[in-house]
Design a protein that fits this description.
6-stranded mixed sheet, about 25% helix, 14 strands, alpha+beta
Length: about 250
Amino acid sequence: MVLHLVWFAPAVVGGQPPRPPGATPLRVMSINMLGGRADASQIVEVARRANVDILVALEITDGGLRNLRDADISRLLPYRYGAAAPSPAGTMVFLRERAGPVVQLATSLGGLSLTTAVRGLPVRIVAAHPASPADFARWRSDLHAVAEAAATTSADLVIGDLNATVDTRPLRDLMARGGYRDGAELANIGWEPTFPANGVRRRLGIPIPAILPIDHVLVRADGGADRVRLVGIRDTDHAGVIADVWIPATGRG
């Protein structure tokens, strides 16, 4: 029990680096759309109310993209990168500003790295969705590919449904290699599981409660997170994550 308390303590009382002058604040949101079934109008409304700068949509299908467009995502975040897919392999990033260069990740369920401008400063992002650990070899390989992309690009943020909790070895390796910390830990939100949500997944007809925090916003070591909160989105088995983070104005890598 003592050992577990030591492991868990940073999620409640951990610190973060002092915020330097000129740091770039930004608000990011991640949502797994459950094969495009999530309520697109609610996603756009939540993103609009929160005034997000970056929206990462996982498991986005052609139908899911069409629904987001019908809900006027383009008025809020006019630039989109990545690809929808007829299966859960679609990953897209919606932005206020143009991005480039954009590189697709070699992961099973889609992912990409890119650089965009937020308030005039470049922010490097990796949006990722590794395979489920039900296929352990593919899950480990996918997280390794995410770690490679983050290290190669010196990414400021790694965002998405990472299908891993921070106590799993592959995710801890990714964080250690790139010097990342979980935004939820930095903001001291405690135990806030994101999956499975909304009672979508059931056993013997009984809804399974949310038990796993597997959706993350990882922040580079000298960055921080002032606030992280979960939002319920209808018709998906993941909670949305909204994070207020900041990135130092000085370059990295």
